[in-house]
């Protein structure tokens, strides 16, 4: 047993390092990920230790990064691409949706696509336009892709390794504002795998209402549960972890117990993952619901300037208000 207390960012770095040590076919590609170690320092030290042939600083060309990764995967490599900020992913959207997501199906399984695209996402860092988006719903709608999002250091460490070992193309969404949060440090056994990482998990048990979220919103949900406890309310919090395909079994089970559901996400409300969660829960748990499914999310506007983002992002008060609304039915 090797216990280490890690932030999410350090856990990702160690997970990437271990994957590269175990498989020489694992390559890293991205803008400034080599000598600089990435703008968030997630790949810090990897080029120094594994060389420029395995950790490649690329031009500012997301379509080229993804297209090159597709070609490398065809030749048996396992490329890991970093998109510097989630808002930069759209020049590569065609390569992701038309090629990466389709080749395994198009070739009837003969060609596998073991490509991981790491995407720092979400707000809360005071950045300029195109640096605080939440585009995960767009990619969750594309058949042939797996979409996951981590919220803690243990899932970061083991999840990135599981993603790299997979033969499926995976978009790996990482909550950038939590990368280096000391408050979220976790003691992790870096030698003993906890088993399956990609699936919904109850992270706090409760009986009054269920709160489901993913990525950066999990911390908000947990903070709301702590505050609600002081008022005598017991919130059950579920971390989705896998966004496509959705693993809603634990959510259904929880809602049948609590009778209420609040879905929380930073992404805009309309046509989002919270929309799908609400539809599926009301379809599967209709007779268990004591109130309508409520959603707490970003607004249906472009992400605002940094001075306004605290008013845009779902926070503890908005989640607690939704809980009160649910209980008022």
TrEMBL record:
Transketolase-like pyrimidine-binding domain mapped to chain residues: 6-181
Matching InterPro entries: THDP-binding, Transketo_C/PFOR_II, Transketolase-like_Pyr-bd, Transketolase_C
Sorted UniProt keywords: Oxidoreductase, Pyruvate, Thiamine pyrophosphate
Gene3D superfamilies: 3.40.50.920, 3.40.50.970
Obligatory cofactor(s): thiamine diphosphate
GO function terms (MF aspect): magnesium ion binding; pyruvate dehydrogenase (acetyl-transferring) activity
EC number: 1.2.4.1
CDD domains: TPP_PYR_E1-PDHc-beta_like (cd07036)
Leader peptide range in chain numbering: none
Domain of life: Bacteria
Name of the protein this chain belongs to: Pyruvate dehydrogenase E1 component beta subunit
Species, as recorded: Amycolatopsis jiangsuensis
Lineage: Bacteria, Bacillati, Actinomycetota, Actinomycetes, Pseudonocardiales
